[in-house]
What does this fold into?
Amino acid sequence: MRYEGIEGRVAIVTGANHGIGAATAEALAANGALVLVSYLRVDDPADDGVSEPYRAKRARDASDVIRSIREAGGRAEAIEADLRDPVTPARLFDAAEAAFGPVEILVNNATGWRQDTFKPAERDRLGRPLQSLSASSASQVLDVDARGSALMIAEFARRHVARAADWGRIVGLTSGGALGFPEEVSYGAAKAALENYAMSAALELGGDGITSNVVHPPVTDTGWVTEAVRTFVADSDELFHVARPEEVAEVIAFLCSDHARLITANVVHLR
It folds into this structure.
């Protein structure tokens, strides 16, 4: 679908070498945005709780995404960067400006996802491996999803205000809920922080023409969904279906458009 107001805008999408991030980069480019794709290759240890196709996706670079965008007539560049490093935001914005110009759209999609728990259990309800919460497990997701997203917003805001811009879009991705995220406790906490940062940005930066929203996708098949997960969704009273990354990306693109100019400070739950 074509949305007004995106054409010619410069966007950064983090965690965009596969899944929702890749689909979002492609959706924005299809609407005429100039996209910097940020990614970090992850080498997951072999384990029967993580499918081989999903491990392969997380370990690859963004060349397929860039190729897809360019073959469709869009413009995109890619850069590998680790959001755990506090100098990464400035590096990404510098790269986007050098390639395309000032950044007007920021999609905080990257995650340091890792499962941990407070309870003494080695497997979750879906048979995936669990580990006890530790400084390492907490830091991995908090440094990326929470602090990393906040620093990206701060860099976006600083440059936006410095050039007296009056149009901007920030979209984050979240998960979990008001009662936390059992068996993914640090991940849930990090996403709660991301939501809070995004809401503060909406209120503080609205006068500068920036909207800031968060999308809460349903279970989305980015390669990790197994038959056990599909059965869990089918039996749930709260989960209705397994989404495709492209479906989530369509909502993100809408929030980045002029059609969504009156939507800010919202967590948009996709069910």
Q: What stands out?
A: Residues 135-162 form the longest helix (28 residues).
